[in-house]
Amino acid sequence: MAVDDAAQHRPTCGTSALSDTLLTIHDLRVEAGGRAILDGINLSVPKGHFLGIVGPNGAGKSTLINALVGLQRPDHGHIDLFGQCLKPFNRRQLLRHVGFLHQLHEQQPRLPVRVCDVVMMGLGAHLNPLVPMRRYRQRIIEALRLTDMEHAYAHDYRTLSGGQRQRVRLARALVRRPKLLLLDEPSAALDSKRQEKLYLLLRRLCDEQGMGVIMVDHDIAAISSHVDSVACLNRRIHFHASRGEPIPDHVWQRMYGEHIQLMAHDAACIGCTPAEHS
Questions:
Q1: pTM for the full model?
Q2: Hey, what CATH class is 21-108+178-256 in?
Q3: Low-confidence residues in the chain, pLDDT < 50
Q4: Where do the structural domains in the chain lie, given as residue ranges?
């Protein structure tokens, strides 16, 4: 089970690690201006698990992803990564095994930068001018190949389309060969064909490499046939649906409001309520 929204036992920091558990969140609370953005979040992700997180705007989805990489400090609870409690002193060490793609905020770079240099930023090696590019060339090519951007290795990043830039950013998150991949709306700027290829790639990384993936996405219908489970988030986790499990109508209404109109177009997808046949 990937999400435990009603955990009765609250392990102390660093005691929850199992050999196949990449991430565990215990009773997480994050506040802003005296108001809870996230409250009572309990979440566990084992190796090879693909978890989708859905919810309305302002539900705390990006805040949750930022907390998992130490960019947002919890007001209560704690986060275990690979069996260790995430703290300022070990954050850098633990995040070596985490790939992170933050939400796309498109800005035109002012200075020329090659695609390979952008991807190399994911290794942190670009911070050391004494490290030659050739040492990581194969790693960079491998990451670009996964996102179908190998041909753009030496291209100027500024000349790429929005969708191409997003694929390069994904390669930057993958270049460190992470055990856990955190994605905040990775399908932004991608057309439907590229979105499908992205989801298939993530599914393959989970199945073949045991990578854990947490992906925030706005379209449950698009991701439902690829993920192992979906967590419904709006300040807290209202429901967790495993494959083949429908999400009750009242959960959607609690998350999006009473006036939401529900339409299930695929009874096989996670979260969809199968149509009744007369």
A1: 0.85
A2: alpha beta
A3: 1, 3-11, 15-17, 265, 267-268, 273-278
A4: 21-108+178-256
